[in-house]
Design goal:
Two copies of one chain form a homodimer. The first copy, chain A, is an alpha/beta fold. Chain A is built from 15 helices and twelve strands.
Chain lengths: 337, 337
């Protein structure tokens, strides 16, 4: 899922997303609740209509933003009081309100409200936040109106503690969700720990429902997670790096600001078929970055999304062909440096 | 001519320029000489190849930038010494060097080096700068290599003094240019004075060669200049305003940041057929501006260029149909407010 925090995948139009064959876009309920506001979006016919995007949408509940954007005021078992990072105004999300807001916005998949913990976090704090997230998940499930055709995903927490992960997975897995999300990973911990915890989280989840690893990631990390049984990802890297001058290529990551590209007439990735690579040179794109031109962000964001979609399409083909291990090993090698 | 200062029309791709049917793009020799440098561009096959734009290009000589970007160090009859606004390095442009740089970059139309004056400027300063510009024009014409297939336009100055305008036009008109540019207008003077001076400047120019009014302008100003016999314009307004939240429409200029558009589901311009107007609402575009999203700049820049090209196409049709006076009166009324 390309990330469209503010109801736009940054620097990219809906036409381009269709051209790239994006199947689904992630938006952020926290940001859109604060601006333009749920009443504005609902009044205009919902998020699909607002963005003119008829394919699936997923909204993140806002839990992650509330707990990471320094907007937190108080958290109790009832819910969380937070301050707008835009105007300082105070707001309250209970699990019920988070579901209500997301249902009114109208995304196809909405997320339960959770309380993530950072890294490192001690066991007591992690256990308290996980217990609370599990209890909030149950309240979200109960508050969810089933007559809208929307889907609600539960989120499994547990920090970096195997037994807390397993207990959260068991509790969340016992409820009837349309999909299961793995939260609280890729928050600064070593990679080995990420995948150890991922293993504990997904081990006993129902096989038929999609599994969504939130906020991951870099190409080899996504593929390792696919090997662990994950189906769905969101990650701001291809768009964020696209704006900042880094490109994902068939030969690894490339920093377009490097002086070595100043006179380089070759494309960003000779193996890529996207318009950026077919029509423009490294020298030109580097110039656009140095000059601070919006076109640089456009060209490389488009290319990076094209790369990510191609990578995931390749993963699906490799799985079908029974060659996923080789596929994974290839990309781990390319992105090892 | 859409303005592509740094070898890109800001926020717009070459594909979109083709879709918009842009016939020619203006780039700036001053900016491109400083970054990425004439050797880089020439080494990559010239500006067309660098930008991957095969339709005509025009480069401005840099005179205007040198005298307006506070980079000026010294001006003598030999030429002008200036400081890079990027790194403070010192450079020298003689008329001959300005032609050499532009010929090496490879635009189809290149401009003589001139010394514009601001507004207000006293008669003595204006006369000195105009005399110098006229002398430089002759040196540019002599330095110009004719075997490249490029065209060189002379620039008429004279500030806000009718007799200086007429004398400059007479001198420049006596040389053998592929086209004639009117410089030093729209620099802060009252509109009536602009058109009075324009009249004095173009009165006796050869009819067969194109006339280019530099840096103008807003829709009614362009149309008034067409009525005065001008053929070619460049103006950063449609792209600059597009980035800053203002749109040109069939009903006048519209500020997308206005609160009244917060819940407005209608398009930016109901009479416009561009993708921005066909696919997005005022409410959505306003949200994108408020959120600081690149997509806002993209959507409105595209629309504004579409409007400008439509306006000029309409002017051509109106001239052919013998209805230009009515056409001009209509747009003066719309943009009067």
């Amino acid at each position: 899922m390309p990330v469209g925090t503010q109801a736009t995948v940054k620097a990219i139009t809906r036409r381009e997303l269709l051209e790239l064959n994006a199947q689904i876009v992630l938006c952020n309920a926290y940001h859109l609740y604060l601006r333009p506001g749920v009443e504005v979006i609902a009044g205009l016919g919902g998020l699909h209509e607002f963005m003119n995007w008829q394919r699936p949408l997923l909204t993140d509940s806002g839990g992650y933003q509330i707990f990471s954007l320094q907007s937190l005021r108080r958290v109790t078992d009832d819910g969380v009081t937070f301050r707008s990072h835009l105007d300082g105004s105070e707001h309250f999300f209970s699990p019920e309100r988070a579901v209500e807001v997301q249902q009114a916005m109208g995304a196809d998949i909405i997320m339960a409200l959770d309380q993530p913990v950072g890294y490192p976090a001690d066991r007591a704090a992690t256990e308290q936040a996980t217990e609370r997230s599990d209890a909030w998940a149950l309240r979200c499930r109960r508050a969810f109106r089933r007559d809208t055709g929307q889907a609600l995903f539960g989120i499994i927490q547990g920090g970096m503690y195997a037994d807390l992960r397993r207990r959260s997975a068991e509790r969340i897995g016992a409820l009837d969700w349309e999909g299961y999300a793995v939260g609280g990973l890729s928050v600064g911990e070593p990679k080995e720990l990420t995948f150890e915890m991922l293993g504990h989280t997904v081990a006993d989840l129902p096989e038929a429902a999609p599994r969504y690893l939130m906020g991951v990631g870099a190409p080899p990390d996504m593929l390792r997670a696919v090997a662990a049984g994950v189906d769905l990802f969101d990650c701001a890297l291809p768009t964020r790096l696209g704006r900042n001058g880094a490109a994902y290529t068939s030969r690894g990551r490339l920093n377009l600001k490097n002086a070595c590209y100043q006179r380089d007439p070759s494309p960003l990735d000779p193996e890529c078929e996207c318009p950026t690579c077919r029509e423009h040179s490294l020298a030109y794109i580097r110039h656009l970055y140095k000059a601070g031109e919006i076109l640089a962000a456009r060209l490389v964001t488009y290319h990076n999304l094209h790369f990510y979609f191609g990578l995931m399409a390749g993963a699906r083909q490799a799985i079908i062909a029974g060659e996923f291990a080789r596929f994974l090993a290839h990309w781990e090698r390319v992105y090892e440096e």
